[in-house]
Amino acid sequence: MFNKKKKLKQFAARKLVTNVSPRSIISEQFRTVRTNINFSLPNKDLRTLLFTSSSIGEGKSTSAANVAITFAQEGKKVLLVDADLRKPTMHYTFEKSNSPGITNLLTGHWNINEVIKESGIIGLHLITCGPIPSNPAELLGSSSMDNFIKEIREIYDMIIFDSPPALSVSDAQILSNKCDGTILVISSGLTEKKSIVKAKEILEASKANIIGTILNNYKLEKDHYYYQYYG
Ligand SMILES: Nc1ncnc2c1ncn2[C@@H]1O[C@H](COP(=O)(O)OP(=O)(O)O)[C@@H](O)[C@H]1O
Ligand SMILES: [Mg+2]
Question: CB–CB of 103/92 below 8 Å?
Fold first, then answer.
């Protein structure tokens, strides 16, 4: 009973605001993020986008899912990939089974059509993590990953990758090198300045194209309890 309650709470906490309250101020902020992404590299094909942050709990997964939804709401064909192979959460968020997922694909046991799931939102498909591997960084850096990205680029207008924190493991660095753009999520009041600088440095060392940041959890006066800045 206790576990069930705990699980339900987890689902409740992960409701996607852009889906359940598209007219809210928060959803409007996510649309602003979308607009800024659309205008960030006007002459380039920005199709693969990585969400990361310096440490855990800053809102990477929440931001990635909501931004993915706003792109789908714009009429784009969107794929959200849970590439946090260490602490995956997208299967909770979308109430799907975790397997099969990207790890099944990268280890060569499944093909792409077998791991793509309907998200329940029009225009948005999902690839969950799958069984947690012992070698996440190797899998993400593999030629199977390159082939996967090449293949999905042909199918989707926008592909959004969630990832682990940049400071603790090399996964985000590896992925950012393979993506057209990287977004650094910063939790207001939580992320230390030096962590942000360090995360930026290590991502840039792997030739990441950091196109912007999202300031999450910023408390505004009265009506605005959540605010995001992108730029
Ligand atoms: N702006 C916010 N306001 C309230 N809760 C938030 C906000 N951003 C994230 N959360 C919650 O904080 C927790 C951690 O967020 P998450 O996106 O999973 O972080 P990360 O992926 O960076 O570890 C989740 O339970 C999420 O629902
Ligand atoms: Mg996460």
Answer: no
